[in-house]
């Protein structure tokens, strides 16, 4: 029964959320009408109680109509010398609110979906300062564990500047970080929040996923509590919003717009992450979009081999701190770093699986590793070329910056590389002309069309250029 309910729950909330919150959920005991489930920490208990208990109860009742009640209990620590330090940093007023309000909140959370809460609560030290309220911070997502590389150097530098600047010293505002999934946005944003909370200036920090922001506002409005919520948010120094692409709903966006204007106008720092650039957030209120575009937007790319290896090594170090008997041989680590190229997420999955396997198959061969991780390796299918890769390679080759490539500048030294990059984007990716235009600083699709025709014409009469393009294609596919 428990396994069936787990499977249903996983299907409902998605594998990411499931792994984060229910991966360590176990059946504790069961009577005719009461099911007890256990989790390792009180933090997980209150999180599941607040957000998912109704959903879980309904699932059990669907499977067995006799079940009246589901309870979450905390199981005692089994091993490990350091007991987890707990702190409830989700909602400041969760403990004191009336049961009816709590139920309303739960329902609102469920009707809003469950995308953006994949951070794992971990058994490590949480920041000592108290954030006002927000989504949970994962203490493992710190600057210390964030691996620097060419693909994220600029974003990391900006993030550190902000975390160190404290209140009032606003340099890049808002800072907008974007990348496709699994490339470290959440990690970096949480690192900013954690560092800012721990800084001696103790700025008032709020870290929120856009989903959480919507949920919090929806319930506040329902409970006639919106004023005090706004009052709270008005008085913060640093607002960090993750997964901005999920912000939906007219009135919520209106509220967000107010908040954004107010914070920015009073020189309070705002950091936002999304899976696309600000100008590509099409479902967003145009006023919000334009304010987000008024700051600095930085894109992060995928980790290269050295970074992937370093990420794995640091993961192993952390795991070995908990349990020194754990190990993964160096040749296997580098093999994994070489073959898992998709994103940090796949890398993390691969690492966890390996660690688990090695505990009862210590002599894993490389062939066996490939077999185990086959589904995470995308070696079989042709690699998908990304517009970011094209821009990066072309910019480097012609010695211009990527910013210049997507800028409005029309000097010859930039126009030609830009046209070549657009041509390559059209020939190497399935993207449409308007989409490519957007990715090149919001240009019209006719501009892209023109660029592609132009380069096609030039190639036919210019062997030097056609060789150059062949070279670029090889570089892009590396
Ligand atoms: P995103 O929010 O962009 O989807 P995440 O921040 O959730 O990505 O990253 C996915 C996983 O990859 C996390 O476990 C994260 O710690 C790891 N990761 C990604 N980039 C880095 C990096 N530069 N250094 C260390 N870990 C990273
Ligand atoms: Mg994320």
UniProtKB/TrEMBL annotation:
<dbReference type="GO" id="GO:0008289">
    <property type="term" value="F:lipid binding"/>
</dbReference>
<protein>
    <recommendedName>
        <fullName>Chromosomal replication initiator protein DnaA</fullName>
    </recommendedName>
</protein>
<dbReference type="InterPro" id="IPR024633">
    <property type="entry name" value="DnaA_N_dom"/>
</dbReference>
<dbReference type="InterPro" id="IPR020591">
    <property type="entry name" value="Chromosome_initiator_DnaA-like"/>
</dbReference>
<keyword id="KW-0238">DNA-binding</keyword>
<feature type="region of interest" description="Domain I, interacts with DnaA modulators">
    <location>
        <begin position="1"/>
        <end position="95"/>
    </location>
</feature>
<feature type="domain" description="Chromosomal replication initiator DnaA C-terminal">
    <location>
        <begin position="386"/>
        <end position="455"/>
    </location>
</feature>
<dbReference type="InterPro" id="IPR013317">
    <property type="entry name" value="DnaA_dom"/>
</dbReference>
<feature type="binding site">
    <location>
        <position position="186"/>
    </location>
    <ligand>
        <name>ATP</name>
    </ligand>
</feature>
<keyword id="KW-0547">Nucleotide-binding</keyword>
<dbReference type="GO" id="GO:0006270">
    <property type="term" value="P:DNA replication initiation"/>
</dbReference>
<dbReference type="GO" id="GO:0006275">
    <property type="term" value="P:regulation of DNA replication"/>
</dbReference>
<comment type="similarity">
    <text>Belongs to the DnaA family.</text>
</comment>
<dbReference type="Pfam" id="PF11638">
    <property type="entry name" value="DnaA_N"/>
</dbReference>
<dbReference type="InterPro" id="IPR018312">
    <property type="entry name" value="Chromosome_initiator_DnaA_CS"/>
</dbReference>
<dbReference type="InterPro" id="IPR003593">
    <property type="entry name" value="AAA+_ATPase"/>
</dbReference>
<dbReference type="InterPro" id="IPR001957">
    <property type="entry name" value="Chromosome_initiator_DnaA"/>
</dbReference>
<feature type="binding site">
    <location>
        <position position="184"/>
    </location>
    <ligand>
        <name>ATP</name>
    </ligand>
</feature>
<dbReference type="InterPro" id="IPR038454">
    <property type="entry name" value="DnaA_N_sf"/>
</dbReference>
<dbReference type="GO" id="GO:0005886">
    <property type="term" value="C:plasma membrane"/>
</dbReference>
<dbReference type="InterPro" id="IPR010921">
    <property type="entry name" value="Trp_repressor/repl_initiator"/>
</dbReference>
<feature type="domain" description="AAA+ ATPase">
    <location>
        <begin position="171"/>
        <end position="299"/>
    </location>
</feature>
<feature type="binding site">
    <location>
        <position position="182"/>
    </location>
    <ligand>
        <name>ATP</name>
    </ligand>
</feature>
<keyword id="KW-0067">ATP-binding</keyword>
<dbReference type="InterPro" id="IPR013159">
    <property type="entry name" value="DnaA_C"/>
</dbReference>
<dbReference type="Pfam" id="PF08299">
    <property type="entry name" value="Bac_DnaA_C"/>
</dbReference>
<keyword id="KW-0963">Cytoplasm</keyword>
<dbReference type="GO" id="GO:0003688">
    <property type="term" value="F:DNA replication origin binding"/>
</dbReference>
<keyword id="KW-0446">Lipid-binding</keyword>
<dbReference type="GO" id="GO:0005524">
    <property type="term" value="F:ATP binding"/>
</dbReference>
<dbReference type="InterPro" id="IPR027417">
    <property type="entry name" value="P-loop_NTPase"/>
</dbReference>
<feature type="region of interest" description="Domain IV, binds dsDNA">
    <location>
        <begin position="359"/>
        <end position="478"/>
    </location>
</feature>
<dbReference type="GO" id="GO:0005737">
    <property type="term" value="C:cytoplasm"/>
</dbReference>
<comment type="function">
    <text>Plays an essential role in the initiation and regulation of chromosomal replication. ATP-DnaA binds to the origin of replication (oriC) to initiate formation of the DNA replication initiation complex once per cell cycle. Binds the DnaA box (a 9 base pair repeat at the origin) and separates the double-stranded (ds)DNA. Forms a right-handed helical filament on oriC DNA; dsDNA binds to the exterior of the filament while single-stranded (ss)DNA is stabiized in the filament's interior.</text>
</comment>
<feature type="region of interest" description="Domain II">
    <location>
        <begin position="96"/>
        <end position="135"/>
    </location>
</feature>
<comment type="subunit">
    <text>Oligomerizes as a right-handed, spiral filament on DNA at oriC.</text>
</comment>
<feature type="binding site">
    <location>
        <position position="185"/>
    </location>
    <ligand>
        <name>ATP</name>
    </ligand>
</feature>
<dbReference type="Pfam" id="PF00308">
    <property type="entry name" value="Bac_DnaA"/>
</dbReference>
<keyword id="KW-0235">DNA replication</keyword>
